[in-house]
Each structure stands twice: as C-alpha cells, then as structure tokens.
C-alpha cells in the first residue's frame, strides 16, 4: 500500500506546479516577485530621474531669482542714493538764497542784538551748505556732474568762493563790507544759482536713466523668466510627464497582469483537490490559504502557526515536530514529498499533510504545506483488506468440506425463508 504523498505522480505534479506558482507569488494572492524587483528598479530609476530634473529646474529658477534680486536691490539702493543727492542738491539752491538774505540782514540790522542773530543764522547756513557741498562732491558723481563741478564751469570753486565771502560777513565784528554783501546777492541770482540748477537737473537726469534701466531690467527678467519656464516645460517637465505617464501605464499593465494571474491561480486553487498553505521557516502562515484549506479547517490568520490551523490537541505537537524534521533534513530528496505519518482526522475526514520547499533565487525562503483529502484512499485500502480477509475465509471453507456443506445448507435455508 502506498503512503499518501510518496510515489503519487498526480500529487507530485500538482505540488510541483503549485510550488512554482508559490515561488512566483508571495503567498497565493501576493505580487509577482520578479515583477516586483523590476518594478522596484524602474521606480528607483524614475525617482532619481525625476529628482534630478526637478532639482535642475529649481536650481535654474533659484539662480534667476537670486540674480534678479541682487540686481534690483542694487538699483533700488542706487535710486535711494539718487533721491538723497537730488534733495541735497536742491537744498543748496535754497541755502544760497538764504545766505544772501542773511547777509543783507546783517548789513541793515538796526540793533546789535538783531545783527548778532543775523550773523549766527548766516554762519549756520554757510556751515550747512559747505557740509552738503562736501557730501555731494564726495559721492560717486555722474560724468556730466563731475565736469560741471571741476571743469571749465568750476561750480566747486564758485560755491567755495561764495561761502568764504559769507563766512567773512558772518565773522566780522564790525559792520560788514557792503561790497561783500552785494557779491553774495549777485551770485545768488547769477552764475551760482544757474550752476546749482544745472547740478540738480543733472542729478535728476541721471536718476531717470537709472529708473529707465530698472524698468528695462524688470522687463528683461520677466521675458527671461517666461523663456526659462518655457524651456523647462519643453525639456524638463514634458519629458518628466511622459515618463510618469509611461510608468503609470506600466503599473496599470502590471496590475492587470497580476490580477489576471491571481484570477487564474484562484481558479486553479478552487478546482484543485488539494489544499495549499504557504508558511515561513518558523511555521507561521505568510499568505492567503487556498479555498480548500478554509473549507476544511476554517479561516487562517497571517503569522498564525500553521499547525494550529490544521490540527487540534496532541496533533498540533506531532505536526509541528514533523515540520521541524522536514526542515532539519540535510538531503533535499529526503525533504521532497513529506511524512507519511502526517495524517489528520477532522469531522470524520482523513487528511495527509506534505511539505515542499519554496525557493527564491536559489535559497529556501519558505515551505508550501499541501493538504490532501485521503478519505477515499483509506476506504479503498480498507475494502481491499476486507476482500483479502473474505477470500482467505472462502479458501479455508473450500478446504474443509464439512464446513462448506454447513455453509451451503445455511444459505439454502436462508433463501427458502426469504
């Protein structure tokens, strides 16, 4: 009599087929390992490519933004300086008029107190105008303003000569010279005021030129930003979108293939006569059990010891011991098949349990537990035994004539009564 699980070609072929499927699937409802590896590699390449393209795009935008900020900040600072220079140059015109008025006040003062106040105001106005003039010529002067100050026009010399006369009038202890006062009044209405007006106009023109350059720069930055965004859209984001779409379509195709494979495997498992349960090397369930397992023994949970799923009581210990013996066997041929003693009885049904290696990349990563309903085999073996016993009894009767005659007589009586 054959021990279930040994020498049965049908069972071995089924186990071989489902072992291959188990190697390809993580559990019976999991993803394809090879596809997983390829998908992971493709996802890694896609992630690196997207990161690189995205980093380049951000770097270009950051470079343009930083350059624009630096240029605009420089121009705005220059404009602020221009505004200060224009205000200072405009104040010089006012101070020249005030100094002339104060000099006339010193000349025509009626009392000593009035003259002292006029002298003080004249001195303060002259000091402020000299400080403002030093500030103006000490700054970065436009070419035309520098020519005005130190060229043939000699505005710098005019201002300093004007202020020297004003200080002489302010510092005199007696009545000031009327010629000095007339000189101050004439300068405030003649060449000096015209030179100061030209300086203010030049500062304003230079500021307008800077403002125009600022507007041009803003327009250039805007156009360059649009151009950069267009180039990024064409050469970075569009290829990146195509890669993402291709990756999504590839994933959808893979999912469709996996779904089809899962449906096929589910169909095969549904029509198979055997039950299958994937477990790890610790004997814990790692995947979804086949329908027969759930039908025979009820639902199983991931990480649950498989022996507790299939057996009860002492049978759990015995089944776990056979599993350990299978794992400890050194000869792969000795492990292939399973143990003839692994039989279970549940609800009047007798099952055999076989163990088969699950191998990934040349290494054993788990075990496929194969459960088979052998109730019909047991009944057939029992019937064969009963037939042999009956045949032996008949042979004994034929050898004993008296016993055969009694059996024949009893049979005839039974038939007659029937």
Give a short account of the largest sheet: 4 strands, antiparallel
> Termini distance?
40 Å
Task: Write down the overall geometry.
Answer: rod-shaped
Helix/strand-derived category reads: alpha+beta
**How much helix, percentage-wise, in residues?**
over 70%
Question: Low-confidence stretches at least 5 residues in length (pLDDT < 50)?
Answer: 1-7, 9-34
Order of helices and strands: HHHHHHHEHHHHEEEHH
Strand order of the largest sheet: 1-4-3-2
Question: Which strand-content bin applies to the residues?
Answer: 5-15%
Nearest-angstrom radius of gyration?
Answer: 55 Å
Number of helices: 13
Please state the average pLDDT score.
Answer: 78
Beta strand count: 4
Explain what you see:
There is one protein chain. With 418 residues, this protein is of the alpha+beta class. Helices cover 74% and strands 9% of the residues. It is built from 13 helices and four strands. The chain has a four-stranded antiparallel beta sheet, sandwiched between helices. The longest helix has 81 residues, at 191-271. The chain is rod-shaped. Residues 1-7 and 9-34 have low confidence and may be disordered.
Please supply descriptive tags for the structure shown above.
418 residues, rod-shaped, alpha+beta, single chain, 13 helices, 74% helix, disordered N terminus, four-stranded antiparallel β-sheet
Give me the secondary-structure topology.
Elements lengths: L8 H16 L8 H75 L4 H27 L4 H8 L4 H17 L6 H12 L1 H81 L2 E6 L11 H7 L8 H5 L3 H15 L3 H4 L2 E9 L2 E12 L2 E11 L1 H25 L1 H17 L1
Antiparallel strand pairs: 1-4, 2-3, 3-4
Helix pairs in contact: 2-3, 2-6, 2-7, 3-5, 4-7, 5-6, 5-7, 6-7
């Amino acid at each position: 009599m054959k021990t279930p699980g040994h020498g049965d070609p049908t069972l071995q072929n089924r186990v071989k087929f489902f072992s291959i499927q188990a190697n390809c699937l993580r559990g019976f409802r999991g993803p394809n390992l090879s596809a997983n590896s390829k998908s992971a590699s493709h996802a890694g390449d896609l992630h690196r490519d997207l990161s690189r393209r995205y980093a380049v795009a951000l770097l270009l935008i950051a470079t343009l933004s930083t350059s624009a900020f630096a240029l605009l900040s420089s121009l705005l600072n220059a404009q602020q300086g221009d505004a200060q220079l224009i205000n200072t140059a405009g104040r010089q015109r006012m101070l020249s008029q005030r100094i002339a008025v104060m000099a006339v006040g010193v000349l025509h003062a009626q009392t000593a107190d009035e003259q002292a106040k006029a002298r003080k105001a004249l001195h303060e106005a002259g000091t402020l105008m000299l400080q403002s003039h030093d500030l103006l010529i000490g700054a970065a002067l436009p070419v035309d303003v520098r020519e005005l100050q130190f060229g043939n026009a000699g505005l710098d010399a005019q201002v300093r000569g004007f202020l020297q006369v004003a200080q002489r009038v302010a510092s005199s202890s007696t009545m000031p010279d009327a010629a000095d006062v007339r000189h101050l009044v004439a300068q405030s209405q003649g060449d000096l005021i015209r030179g100061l007006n030209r300086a203010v106009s030049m500062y304003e023109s230079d500021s307008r030129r800077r403002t125009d350059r600022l507007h041009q720069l803003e327009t250039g930055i805007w156009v360059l930003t649009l151009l950069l965004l267009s180039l990024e859209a064409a050469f970075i984001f569009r290829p990146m979108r195509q890669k993402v779409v291709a990756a999504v379509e590839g994933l959808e195709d893979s999912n469709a293939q996996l779904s089809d494979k899962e449906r096929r495997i589910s169909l095969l498992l549904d029509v198979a006569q055997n039950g299958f349960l994937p477990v790890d090397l610790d004997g814990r369930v790692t995947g979804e059990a086949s329908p027969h397992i759930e039908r025979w023994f009820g639902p199983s949970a991931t990480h649950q010891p498989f022996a507790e799923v299939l057996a009860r009581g002492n049978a759990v210990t015995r089944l776990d011991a056979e599993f350990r013996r299978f794992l400890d066997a050194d000869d792969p041929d000795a492990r292939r098949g399973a143990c003839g003693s692994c039989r279970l009885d549940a609800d009047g049904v007798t099952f055999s349990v076989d163990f088969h290696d699950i191998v990934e990349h040349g290494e054993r990563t788990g075990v496929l537990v194969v459960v088979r309903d052998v109730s019909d085999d047991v009944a057939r073996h029992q019937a064969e035994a009963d037939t042999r016993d009956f045949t032996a009894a008949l042979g004994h009767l034929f050898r004993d004539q008296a016993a055969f005659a009694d059996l024949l007589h009893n049979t005839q009586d039974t038939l007659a009564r029937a």
